[in-house]
TrEMBL record:
Record's GO cellular component terms: Mpp10 complex; small-subunit processome
Listed name of the protein: U3 small nucleolar ribonucleoprotein protein IMP4
Domain of life per record: Eukaryota
Species: Colletotrichum tabaci
InterPro entries in the record: Brix (IPR007109), IMP4/RPF1 (IPR044281)
GO term, biological process aspect, one: rRNA processing
Residue span, Brix domain: 86-168
One example GO MF annotation: snoRNA binding
SUPFAM superfamilies membership: Class II aaRS ABD-related (SSF52954)
Amino acid sequence: MIRKQARQRRDYLYRKAQILKDAETGEKRAQLRSALAAGKPLDPEIARDKTLRKDFQYDQSKPELSAQEEMDLDDEYSMLSGVSEPRVLVTTSRDCSSRLAAFSKEIRLLLPHVFVRTSYDSVELAEVGPRMTMRPFEIRGGTLDSKEGDVEWHLTHYTRTGRKKEYL
């Protein structure tokens, strides 16, 4: 537990340092942009920065965010970054379409950490979700003509961006 907390602390400090460094570079870009727009002479510190001048043409399309705005952005993978592999759960109905069956086989081959549900008696989705730190969400199948269709439940990781609801 102590190693995990130390790793998370290092990861947090590294990300925070990167954000502050990017914010400082953003402030320099804003000063450069305002000096060029107003026709004023550049600050000597900015004028000496060769990488800032070289990358200025590419930086014009990037929106400028302050350090606080950068920190407010959701990072849904922050809890998983380098700590654990994401877990994938592939569930299908017993009589699924051939395209869905082919897709689930491809996913099982591509992703190494896939939990495959074998039968209804062996595992319930409500049991698997908390163990894998996942939450269910609903996909409704249907067409534009007919809203009646299959209802599928899928499990995704808990994230700060997702709404947490109890479906099961």
